[in-house]
Amino acid sequence: MSKYHTLTIKTQGEKFYSITKLVEENLQQILKTTFPQSTAGVLHLMIAHTSCALTIGESFDPSAKGDQERFLKHLVPSGLPFIKHLDEGEDDSPSHIKSMLLQQHLAIIVENKELIIGKWQGIYLAEFRMAPHARSIFMKYQPDSI
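-> structure tokens emitted (146 positions)
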């Protein structure tokens, strides 16, 4: 039996994809099938790619997500004259740089079988490539000692 679970997210270009509900649903499945006695612990999320990232951000007002997407495009635009790594297109190196600014791993507290995140927070897969991709996110639940 695997001790971690894999989510596959299909992206359709550069933007932030809300994955909160998917993560919550999969957490419930993990708890039900693998840790039925556990009510508290830590959920680890890790993305195994160098051109996307994970982040927790404002999820109530969609304009906040848009602002974050536009900020990263402004901070690291395609076409910078010093960029040399363009093997997979003009977004190749800029996507790697943007992913370095966010995280590849999140650790979220679980209490009473629920994620502990702020009222207005959501979990996002931040895609930085223009082309569609299938992204793998590894989930591992670590129960508190019983």
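Residues 38 and 95 are 38 Å apart (CA to CA).
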